Amino acid sequence: MTPDAVAEEPLDDRELSDRAEVRFRVMRALEQTPRLSQRDIARTLFVSLGGGNYYIKALIDKGAVKVENFRASDNKMRYFYILTPEGIGEKSHILRAI
Predict the structure, then answer these.
(1) What is the three-state SS of 82-93?
(2) Helix H or strand E segment including 18
(3) Residue 45 contacts residue 24 (beta carbons within 8 Å)
(4) pTM for this structure?
(5) What whole-number distance in Å separates Cα of residue 93 and Cα of residue 96?
(6) pLDDT for res 83
(7) How far apart are CA 89 and CA 95, in angstroms?
(8) d(Cα 4, Cα 2) in Å, to the nearest integer?
């Protein structure tokens, strides 16, 4: 480890469980209503907009969620989120673990 590197402390089981629960809730919300905005997701989950963005981006990076533009919208900055087959599997895995 370099002197500039910061050692991350391991997460305890409760923190992992909390994160898994929020990921599950994001995936459940997207499965029910894929046209939710990031702001809508944050409101639904009672997290900050940055927190909602963090979880959505993490799920996109994992391949659990796919993002697409609204084609029929005048506002091309609007996106909708699709739960992928990997996301459905991840959601089932989290549900079994919680």
Answers:
(1) EECHHHHHHHHH
(2) helix 13-32
(3) no
(4) 0.69
(5) 5
(6) 86
(7) 10
(8) 5
Give the largest Cα separation in the chain, rounded: 52
Tokens encoding 37 = 């905005």
pLDDT of the chain along its 98 residues, tens only? 444 444 444 445 555 577 888 888 889 898 888 788 888 989 988 889 998 899 899 999 999 998 877 665 555 556 778 888 888 888 888 777 76
- For residue 65, what are its two tokens? 């969620």
Residue holding tokens 């609007």? 78
Contact status, residue 66 vs residue 82, Cβ threshold 8 Å: yes
For strands 79-83 and 65-69, give the pairing: antiparallel
Length reported for the chain: 98
Secondary structure (DSSP) of 60-80 = HHHTSEEEEE-SS-S-TT-EE
Instruction: Specify which residues 66 forms β-bridges with.
Output: 82
